[in-house]
Amino acid sequence: MSRPACALWVSALLFLSGDGLASPFQPGTEPPAPEPPESNLIEDLEVPPQFDGAMPRGELVPHHYPAQRAAKVVEHYLNTRYGSPYRRVHLHQVHKAGLEDLGQAGNKYHLEISLKEVVSNTDLGPCSAEVLFSGEQDQRAPQVQCSCEGLKKLDTKAEEEALFQKLNSSDSLLSGSNIPDSYGHVAPEMKPMWKLGAAAASFVMLNESNEGTLYNMAQVANFTQLETENDQLRFKYHILLHEMITQEILHWKLLATWSPAGGVSVSQTELQPKCHHCETASAIEIPEATPSPTSAS
Amino acid sequence: MMIPAGLAFVILCAQIADCSTLHVSMPEANPRNYDYTKYHPMSEISDWMKKVVAENPGLVSSAVYGETFEGRNITYLKIGLGSGGPERKAIWMDCGIHAREWIAPAFCQWFVKEILQRYKTDEKLNEMLTNMDFYVTPVLNVDGYMYSWVNEGTRLWRKSRSTPPEGCSCHGVDLNRNFNANWGTVGVSRDCCSNTYCGTGPASEREAQAVTAFVGSRVEQILCFLTIHSAGQLLLMPYGHPNILPPNYDELKALGQAAAAAMKAVHGMEYRVGTSPEILYANSGSSRDWARLMGIPYSYTFELRDTGEFGHLLPEDQIQPACEEAFEGARYIIAYVHDRAFHNRTQIGGAGAAGPFLATVLASCIASTYLL
């Protein structure tokens, strides 16, 4: 290598390493924080969820839990309005968040978020939303307002019509279970039923949400198609919700109706007793078993 | 920065006689035909561990360091290139403390595979294995993991499989609420039927005792403690209690953010970084908190994919991308703690590969200038 080339390499080296050399972490310059107590004699402390992070009023840190939980509620709300067998909105990021304390009226979150539509893998771009969690006296579901231009560009009419015709005119009534299965697999013909279940679940999740919860649908345990009524397809669903803060799996049964024109609606929602048989002592020895083959019938 | 680095690499490569030595995979180091992109039941994982040890003498050993409630072995793989006594430094990684988080054991296996494939040709990795041991526990909560494989109804089991305590009727303790770290104070339930039941007392559970005994007797040696979970795409720092911060909070935050950036660079996935009460929820009795309280300076919980579309039921076709990004995050942290211990270097923010690459450039440049 000639000297000019070497000089080139050295300057390249300095350019490339400049980033790293510029700001080495210097722990010694940080003011010493108080040592954490070494013992475990912290008093029993029931910290109400909304005060966990000593949340200041006003501006919220977007990636901290209060803004994240409120943004999740927007996701549930949008899925009750726009969800379908071919449309599922998913929270992507929270960009900005603010909190307005309305006293007895509750807490209102102002959010700038971005969303994705996961069936078509479409970036829905930025949205602004408001979420009002009512005060303690009031047991109402959160109230959401959302403006999301990106939703308008979604076009799933063709697929929805095709599915509607197929399920409406079929001789047999469709049913399925364990969607996704233990391996996360969803059979292609079950994907729309999975997404429809998620849209239906969103009604429950929206209703059940508050500042101390974070819901996702874990699985469609099973579903059964019922006879069409009033030009709406009807399904009984048994869904499993995962609530993050308690880490519980909640079983809900519901009746979902759907048509391309009418969207999804939900009735007869019923929380099932906790599934202790999934969790209580079993008389059988645990074998080195693999799960029984799943059937999306 | 990476584009000029990549270009420089290509040009440099052209001047080196044999570029192919820079990236060679070592399939012989790994058991043949083991599919790391599938979920494996415990029996297959145990067989895999035995093979990995048998096929890598002098590099991999294993040991049983405790027993589960139902009497099963809790086993780690110890990977390292040195011989050394009780002074030898180490890093700790455990997976599968929560039964249903299947991507976590899948990641521990992937992590081992990557190390075995790369260590002969990856200078940095080689150096780290020479200086430190890697203790990897592919499945900590063996009873719970096996229970989650029994049938579709048990797939979402989380806890251990200990029998109900007096006066209550449900099995299992949330092992990540059972450690002696502000035990029983916040983010737990005293109801044994709850999924965050913290047990009858701190480290009442055998699985927690195993980690406590092994890691607890080596606190001076262990440079970092990584515990792998799903889901949520988070890097959680100590502590779970909202009123306490670790003394090296700023450093842990900066390091976590750099690791998250390294993870995002792989497949574009965002991982949020912070303490549990900041970004998720308050909790107590976690193994991460216990490790930090014991004095292990770098302690993180990795929450892998996803953010709710599949949750714990992450599809097998996501195992590879999830593991690829998690590997970069874990590697980043491990390289940092290694360099801090062995080179007194606390640089955060440069790309991990830049160091040895740049050193090679400088060395070859100087050598060729003055030798030719």
UniProtKB/TrEMBL annotation, chain A:
It comes from the Eukaryota. Residues 1-22 form the signal peptide. GO terms for molecular function: metalloendopeptidase inhibitor activity. Keywords: Protease inhibitor, Repeat, Signal. InterPro entries: CYSTATIN_LXN, Cystatin_sf, Latexin. Belongs to the protease inhibitor I47 (latexin) family. SUPFAM superfamilies: Cystatin/monellin. Pfam families: LXN. This is Cystatin LXN-type domain-containing protein. Residues 56-159, 175-280 form the Cystatin LXN-type domain. PROSITE patterns: CYSTATIN_LXN.
From TrEMBL, chain B:
One of its GO terms (molecular function) is carboxypeptidase activity. The active site is at E303. PROSITE patterns: CARBOXYPEPT_ZN_1, PEPTIDASE_M14. Gene3D superfamilies: Zn peptidases. InterPro entries: CARBOXYPEPT_ZN_1, Peptidase_M14. Residues 1-19 form the signal peptide. Its cofactor is Zn(2+). It comes from the Eukaryota. Belongs to the peptidase M14 family. PANTHER family: CARBOXYPEPTIDASE O, PROTEASE FAMILY M14 CARBOXYPEPTIDASE A,B. This is Peptidase M14 domain-containing protein. It comes from Coilia grayii (Gray's grenadier anchovy). The lineage of its organism: Eukaryota, Metazoa, Chordata, Craniata, Vertebrata.
